[in-house]
Amino acid sequence: MTAAPQPTAPRRSREPGHRRKFLVVVDDTPECDRAVYFAARRAAGTAGGVVLLGVLELEGVAQQWLGVADLMRAEAHEEMEARLQNFAARARQVAGVAAERVIREGAPAEAIARVIAEDHDIAILVLAAGVGKDGPGPLVTALAAGHAARFPVPITIVPGALTDADLDALA
After folding, report:
1. Which of 28, 79, 100, 133 lies 20 to 30 Å from 86 when distance is taken between CA atoms?
2. SS3 sequence, the chain?
3. Regarding beta strands 21-26 and 49-56, do their DSSP bridges make them parallel or antiparallel, or are they unpaired?
4. CA max distance for the chain
5. Tens-of-pLDDT digits for all 171 residues of the chain?
6. Are the CB atoms for 69 and 62 separated by under 8 Å?
7. Hey, which residues does 56 pair with through a beta bridge?
């Protein structure tokens, strides 16, 4: 039996001095660009913002020698920062949006929940579904299996096969 969702502080994106933010989980999948593109276009069209979240799953790092673990963690952070920088440039290119970049360690669903709890302007979580034979992807699958009930924001799942023109028409 799963626990009921914990109450969260209200979203503040509609209050004066705040703006609605779209949270995008950035990974190394080809469809990730679709989520960033959609979120950037939606943010630009609604005077909102974009938060790019990179999640590092470093469970094996703790079992390494201290120096090795530190090096592995630093390399993972560097790689993720570069990936976030590339997608921030993409958001700027397609919609003129300056995206915030956040890196968290841990399980993706837990990292997402923490970032949403920390930033009360986040109003929508945007993910992209894979188009391959492996299904929509592990994060979309996990959220569909029940983790989504923990989030105090709606989730938009962008089909990975949509073109820029398709997304422009929808955003």
Report:
1. 133
2. CCCCCCCCCCCCCCCCCCCCEEEEEECCCCCHHHHHHHHHHHHHHCCCEEEEEEEECCCCHHHCCHHHHHHHHHHHHHHHHHHHHHHHHHHHHHHCCCCEEEEEECCHHHHHHHHHHHCCCEEEEEEEECCCCCCCCHHHHHHHCCHHHHCCCCEEEEECCCCHHHHHHHC
3. parallel
4. 52
5. 344 344 456 788 778 888 999 999 999 988 999 999 999 999 999 999 999 999 998 876 555 566 777 788 889 999 999 999 999 999 999 999 999 999 999 989 899 999 999 999 999 999 999 887 777 777 777 776 666 677 789 999 999 999 999 999 999
6. yes
7. 105
- Identity (one letter) of the amino acid at 33? D
